[in-house]
Amino acid sequence: MSTAILTGDCPECETDLTVPPMVQGETLSCPECMLTLRVEGVQDGRLSLQMVEVQLRDWGQ
Pairing mode, if any, of strands 27-29 and 6-9? Predict the structure, then answer.
């Protein structure tokens, strides 16, 4: 039994990513640059990834 593997490239550092099956809207972190990425689409086993801006919360401290 084989497990489906998806591939893609980080849009920031261009690291080749290999991940288990994901669907549009899921997020992951690039292991190289630690950027948060969102899956914009999956076609023929290839991920289309977009950077996600993470806003840190200001707790007023």
Answer: unpaired
